[in-house]
Every structure is written in C-alpha cells, then in structure tokens.
Amino acid sequence: MKFPQIGSNIEVQSYKHNGHLHRVWEETIILKGTSQEIVGGNDRIIVHESDGRQWRTREPAICYFTAKHWFNVIGMIRNDGIYYYCNLGTPFTYDDEALKYIDYDLDIKVFPDMTYKLLDEDEFALHKNQMKYPEEVEHILWKTVDELVSWISQQKGPFEPAFIEYWYERFLQHR
C-alpha cells in the first residue's frame, strides 16, 4: 500500500457505504506515514460537506488512522483539555489523491476526563436500512465500539496521555 510522506499535505475524504463522497478535510500535514498507521495534524482547516456546506475547524487537531482497525481518532486540542472524536469506519486507504475511508455513522466522543458518549445510533440505524449494510459489517462495527471503549479505558494508542502532546509538538515544527 502507498502511504504519504512525512511533511506532505494531504486531503482526507470520507465516503458512505453507497460510494458517495461524505466529507472532505482540505489539509492535513503528515507527521507519520506507514502502510499501517498515519498520524497527521491540522489547525482551523476548511471541511466540505457533501451537501455543499463548508465550515472551518475551531482548534488544532491530531488525526490517527490505522490500516488494521475500523476507526480513526481525532484529538482536538482545546483550552480545557483534549477532546477526542472517534469515527467508526473502514481502515484507511491512500492514493495520490487523498487518504480515504468509508464512514459508518457511529461515533464516540471522549471528554478530557476520559468519559465518553456513543453518538449517532439513529443515523446508523437509518443508513443501515437505506444502504443495506451487510450483517458482517454491522457485526464488525459493534465489535469495534467495544474495542474503542477498551482503548479509551486503558488509555491505549491515541488515548495514551502523551500521544496528542507529542504529535502536536511535531505538527508545530512542520507548519
């Protein structure tokens, strides 16, 4: 698998199960890029929605993508601590155009005290029926919710206390 080079600036694209483009993040600077894991950073970037709307992120963020797990994690650096937004979706792929994954609606928001909330179960139920998610995909996603909750409670991977801080320092060097 191809992967982006450290220091390169890439686009991140999320799609829906039906193949339609869902959301595009314009700029993410690659801080670590291997075939198995990508860490990127961005700050106040423009995000394009499939319905034509666009908005700007409010704070610096460190993004963690893995080729083995059905999730990605965005650590948002705010004045009152680090908030995490976990998207449940396919492992990433990368081509010369962008880093890409399929977003499967379910999200977990993690607060600075490491409490969390599962989001968008209603959207998942709706899209599961509309787009006819295979049973296998649904099984993987619910198993991934359990896996993410375990990572959060163990402060593993991107939830490890110094992870976001370490990569944010690297991000500041590449700006």
UniProtKB/TrEMBL annotation:
Q: Which UniProt keywords apply?
A: Hydrolase, Magnesium, Metal-binding
Q: Which GO terms describe its molecular function?
A: magnesium ion binding; nucleoside diphosphate phosphatase activity; ribonucleoside triphosphate phosphatase activity
Which residue positions does the secretion signal occupy? Answer: none
Highest taxon, organism lineage: Bacteria
Q: Where is the DUF402 domain?
A: 18-156
List of catalytic residues: R23 (proton donor)
Catalytic function, reaction form: a ribonucleoside 5'-diphosphate + H2O = a ribonucleoside 5'-phosphate + phosphate + H(+); a ribonucleoside 5'-triphosphate + H2O = a ribonucleoside 5'-diphosphate + phosphate + H(+)
- Cofactor(s) required, per the database record: Mg(2+)
**InterPro entries registered for this protein in UniProt:** DUF402, FomD-like_sf, Ntdp-like, SA1684
Top-tier EC class: hydrolase
- As recorded in UniProt, its EC number(s) are 3.6.1.15, 3.6.1.6
Residue positions annotated to bind Mg(2+) 1 are: N87, D103, D107
The family database entries (Pfam families) matched by this protein are listed as:
DUF402
UniProt-annotated binding residues for Mg(2+) 2: D105, D107, D120, E123
Q: Which HAMAP family match?
A: Ntdp
Q: Which family does it belong to?
A: Belongs to the Ntdp family.
NCBIfam families, A to Z:
PRK13662.1 (NF010183)
**Its job:** Has nucleoside phosphatase activity towards nucleoside triphosphates and nucleoside diphosphates.
What protein name applies here? Answer: Nucleoside triphosphate/diphosphate phosphatase
Organism of derivation: Salipaludibacillus neizhouensis
